[in-house]
Amino acid sequence: MDAIQESCTKVWIRINLHFFLDDNCEGTLDPLGIQNIPGEDAYKLAEDIITRANSALENNREQWVQNLTWGIDPADAKPEQCVPLRYVLSGVYVWCNSAAQNTSGFIISHFQNNFGQNIDTEYNAYYVNVPGGPNGVANGQPGNAFTGENFGVSVFNHEMGHLLSLRHVDEDDDIGDTPRIRFQYDYNCDGDLTDNFPDPGIGWEG
Prior knowledge:
This protein is of the alpha/beta class and 206 residues long. The chain is built from 5 helices and 5 strands, in the order αβαβααβββα. It has a 5-stranded mixed β-sheet with strand order 2-1-3-5-4, with helices on both faces. The longest helix has 17 residues, at 42-58.
């Protein structure tokens, strides 16, 4: 693995992309119904997703919150890292299945059990609605499938990272080139993260 990282030798990952339409094969490939993307454009859409995801990996940038505000000494900042992983499109599937189309993206096992392709050797991504806030969900760390409700490559690469055992950087991910990031904000805009507010609060009149 060190040799791959040092030379940035490409490692290709096979993945299948799945889209869902109504039982009558009408509707849009967009799980949220925002864009009108007909079923016949599935392969073009899938190729575009893979191309953009690979481009994002190729053009990796330095982690942007490596500074004192976030508790990271600039001397310890890590440069951008080579990401040798690239995706290769193994298959594109359009399923005319209203029940699946209306199944929550949190129930990844339903999609893997009913629509998964080569689940022991390839990854599967299902584009369905993921209600309640997140744009995507991975079925494990490590895992072999994820759901996503938009076609952004940030979601794609984020969920693939989870499938490849990566955790969020606000947790201890045991990886030296991704220092832990604490999600804290300077709520009162005084230049530090220790935010003290008067009690009972500014402008309160009892």
